Amino acid sequence: MQVILPADPTVCPLCGQSNQCAGQVARTTGVQQPPCWCNQVMFGAELLARVPEHARRMACVCAACAQSGGA
């Protein structure tokens, strides 16, 4: 039986690196952050479809994966 752990909101679900999510930093530290880098990026449907189902809307894709299409 495969066990799927909850997504870590600080880690990119595609590459496992830090996603540098300003929203998550604010939630964790309680310190208001400037707008997140992701507010300036369009995430294509193909890229978002690659995010594992358990991590959708739970963990942000990182800037490197957003730029490379998650390759």
Characterise this structure.
This protein has 71 residues and is an all-alpha fold. The protein has one domain. The protein is 27% helix and 0% strand. The chain has 3 helices and no strands. It has helices spanning 22-29, 45-49, 63-68. It is flat, with a radius of gyration of 12 Å. 18% of the residues are buried. The model has no long low-confidence stretch (mean pLDDT 88).
Properties at a glance:
mainly alpha; 71 residues; 27% helix
Give the helix level as a range of percent. Answer: 25-40%
State the assembly state of the protein chains: single chain
The radius of gyration is: 12 Å
Report low-confidence residues grouped into runs of 5 or more: none
| Helix-strand sequence | HHH
Number of strands: 0
Structural domain tally: 1
Largest sheet: none
In short, what is this structure?
The protein is 27% helix and 0% strand. It contains three helices and no strands.
List the helices and strands and how they pair.
Layout: H1 22-29, H2 45-49, H3 63-68
